[in-house]
Amino acid sequence: MELYFPEELGEQLAFCAAAFTAFAGFIIMFAPGYAMRLFGLQPREGRRDGYAEQRSTGGVYLALGLAPILLAQPNTYLVLGAAFAMAAFARIISLLSDRGGTFVNYILLVVQAVLAALPLGYVFGFFSA
Fold first, then answer.
1. Is the backbone of residue 125 left (phi > 0), alpha (psi -120 to 50) or beta?
2. How crowded is residue 34: how many other Cβ atoms within 10 Å of its Cβ?
3. Predicted confidence band at 3 (pLDDT cuts at 50, 70, 90)?
4. Which residues have a Cβ under 8 Å from the Cβ of 83 and sit 6 or more positions away?
5. For 39-96, what is the HEC assignment?
6. H or E segment at 18?
């Protein structure tokens, strides 16, 4: 099995979103303390469950990013884009309901929106060759 790098611009953009997701998942999975500090999260004293939760989430991101890279099928890009679209929607709900209007939340909303738009734009044909 050889690594496939797409030739079309739209698929290249979607591929980059998948690669970024896999990279972020790798970092979150293998360096959960660093990831928690980056996002302003800290586990409670005496409880190490936060690290397990971060590693688990990192594993999901890693798999979500690797699937389109390894399989190179439009449906895998659709799943990646839909997952980030729903994550961005959930972040909007949090911004409105939880008074979470912090700089980090707005930046992560933009990141999630871009990570949703790139694969969905490819799948639905918004990027022409």
1. left
2. 12
3. confident
4. 64, 116
5. CCCCCCCCCCHHHHHHHHHHHHHHHHHHHHHHHCCHHHHHHHHHHHHHHHHHHHHHHH
6. helix 9-30
User: 49-71 vs 9-30: helix axis angle to the nearest 10?
Assistant: 150
| Local confidence band at 45 (pLDDT 50, 70, 90 cut-offs) | confident
Give the integer Cα–Cα distance in Å for 109 and 95: 10
How many Å apart are CA 33 and CA 110, to the nearest integer? Answer: 23
The pTM of this model reads 0.89
Which long-range contacts does 50-54 make (Cβ < 8 Å, 24+ apart)?
54/28, 54/29
| Triad 118, 123, 129: Cα angle to 5° | 80
Largest separation between any pair of C-alpha atoms in the chain: 54
